[in-house]
Design the sequence.
């Protein structure tokens, strides 16, 4: 795997999957609408080679007034996406986003994969958005979660799939990770024991 | 005749638990092996292989 990391940007070229292309399209709509966002969770591991599928791409978008959200909603529909769990944009804003729930957007006529959009509501969410990392993927751009945070958060989520994602990211980025930052993120999320089992020890559970 | 389904003893359940643990360890070992391969393989090659996996789904 070849990538270079420079000043908060990971430069990266690969053969794009259908999911990558869809993510770039969704991210392009966000960028055109001047909406700050960060992609978190499973897609980050998949982007960097993890051999699994996902049915949704989770992201936080900056908290915004209704008018801006309506313009974004219209731009998404023009780009060929639709909201699959709410047809009224004002309700998607008031009953979902404002209530810490996520409207989901999928390509028209499809249900998966879909984009699960949330406003940042916790210290973790806000940190993720503020400290996002740019990925220059085949000359296009997406924002993903800081890798150190992503690994620690996967340990926090705690399913076997999440542990595997954490181990994958740790292995792939081992040589370029900020070890002290990773240790701090692990401590902040209270997942020291999981880190010991999944990251630091060579034999996982023996 | 009515199907009874599985009847498991405590020992059987313990064995299942051990099997789950072994499977997870094997998955993690595979991830290590896969990542070693990934790191020394050109992006064009591994991403094509990853794409062929998703296009089969």
Sequence:
């Amino acid at each position: 795997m070849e990538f270079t990391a420079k000043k908060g940007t990971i430069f990266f070229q690969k053969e794009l999957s259908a999911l990558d292309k869809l993510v770039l399209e969704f991210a392009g709509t966000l960028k055109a609408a001047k909406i700050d966002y960060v992609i978190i969770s499973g897609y980050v591991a998949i982007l960097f080679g993890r051999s699994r599928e996902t049915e949704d791409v989770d992201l936080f978008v900056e908290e915004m007034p209704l008018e801006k959200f309506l313009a974004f909603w219209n731009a998404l529909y023009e780009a060929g996406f639709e909201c699959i769990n709410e047809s009224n944009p004002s309700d998607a804003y008031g009953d979902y986003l404002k209530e810490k729930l996520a409207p989901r957007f999928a390509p028209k006529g499809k249900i998966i994969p879909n984009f699960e959009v949330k406003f940042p509501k916790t210290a973790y969410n806000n940190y993720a958005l503020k400290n996002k990392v740019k990925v220059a993927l085949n000359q296009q751009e997406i924002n993903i979660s800081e890798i150190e945070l992503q690994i620690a958060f996967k340990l926090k989520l705690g399913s076997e799939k999440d542990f595997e994602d954490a181990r994958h990211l740790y292995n792939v980025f081992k040589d370029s990770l900020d070890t002290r930052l990773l240790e701090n993120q692990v401590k902040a999320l209270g997942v020291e024991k999981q880190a010991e089992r999944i990251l630091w020890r060579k034999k996982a559970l023996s | 005749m009515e199907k009874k389904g599985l009847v498991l003893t405590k020992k059987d359940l313990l064995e299942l638990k051990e099997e789950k643990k072994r499977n997870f360890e094997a998955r993690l070992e595979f991830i290590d092996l896969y990542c070693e391969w990934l790191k020394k393989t050109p992006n064009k090659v591994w991403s094509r292989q990853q794409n062929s996996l998703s296009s089969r789904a």
